[in-house]
Amino acid sequence: MFTNRVTELFGIDYPIIQAGMIWASGWKLASAVSNAGGLGIIGAGSMYPDVLRSHIQKCKAATSRPFGVNIPLLYPDLEQHIRIIIEEQVPVVVTSAGNPKTWTRTFKDAGITVVHVVSSSKFALKSQDAGCDAIVAEGFEAGGHNGREETTTLVLIPAVKNAVQIPVIAAGGIATGRQMFAVMALGAEGVQVGTRFVACEEASVHPHFKSAVLNAAEGDTQLSLKKLTPVRLLKKRVFSARCRKRKGEVLTRANWQAYWAGHVRNGACTKGTWKRGNWRLARQVRW
After folding, report:
1. Nearest Cα residue to 91 out of 71, 58, 65, 117
2. Which of 97, 167, 181, 228 could make an SS bond with 134 (beta carbons 3.0 to 4.6 A apart)?
């Protein structure tokens, strides 16, 4: 059996983490990945507090293996989410989109393993100093929210590995064993995979979204909303026009929370409609 610091930290068989993707990774996908030997993650970013609790409880009933919850630290219902995660004794939390120093100690005091998502060596060091157990170093190719540095995965991983002592998990454009081998050769001890899991039967997105994943080519995504919150989307006219209208916005907590509120009602993932919502894919499409 293969073991390293990542498999030992999470108590899993394979150093593969399924990314916490809003609308896509509910309890069905998370429990399926965990039962298969990886680490399944519930994406809490699109869930109201009572919905999150329900998904956690269903995941606990569906698997006896470790699983986790991904929580954006600027989410409007953050404190309620944190309380639920602690009350339900979730074993792993993956935090993102915020300062890890604020809540890491709270999670650690509750016996929870904490991982933070970063896009630079600078924030990797901050996460290590905050007491995180591991970091996900996410390159520019990743679907969904991205760092402002626009650093590619193959550049980011060795830089972060050289900067910290805690385990590094690579993310961003990873979908195959060859890509996993490549980033582990650069120093990563595991991978976080998102877009490929969207196409799974257990993913909670609409079949039209899964079809878009399977049919997209390497140039079919773009980075949008760079000044508000960079996000990689599948190219399409309607939503791209909306993004262009908002591209000059300055990031504030108020417009960030308004943006997240819209996430909960995203029609692209839940109803498969092109005109309502956005379609998030990484650059590893078409494996």
Report:
1. 65
2. 167
Sheet holding 168-171, edge to edge: 16-18, 190-193, 168-171, 134-138, 113-118, 92-96, 67-72, 40-43
pLDDT digits (tens, 9 = 90+) for 227-262: 656 665 666 644 455 545 555 555 555 554 555 455
CA distance 38 to 30: 9
Full DSSP string of 42-73: EEGGG--HHHHHHHHHHHHHH-SS-EEEEEET
**Order of strands across the sheet with 231-234?**
144-145, 231-234, 221-224
Give the domain extent around 227: 207-271
Distance CA 35, CA 198 (A): 17
In a domain, 284, yes or no: no
End-to-end CA distance of the chain: 26
Is residue 257 in a domain?
A: yes
pLDDT tens-digit map of 13-29: 999 999 988 778 899 99
Phi, psi of 158 (to 5 degrees): -65, -30
Beta strands in 127-215 (DSSP E): 134-138, 144-145, 168-171, 190-193
Whether the model pTM is above 0.85: no
Closest among 270, 255, 188, 193 to 225, alpha carbons compared: 255
Residue 225 to residue 246: CA distance in whole angstroms: 7
Give the CATH number, domain containing residue 34: 3.20.20.70
**C-beta of residue 150 within 8 angstroms of C-beta of residue 47:** no
Residues ≥6 apart with Cβ < 8 Å to 245? none
> 60 is written with which tokens?
């606990």
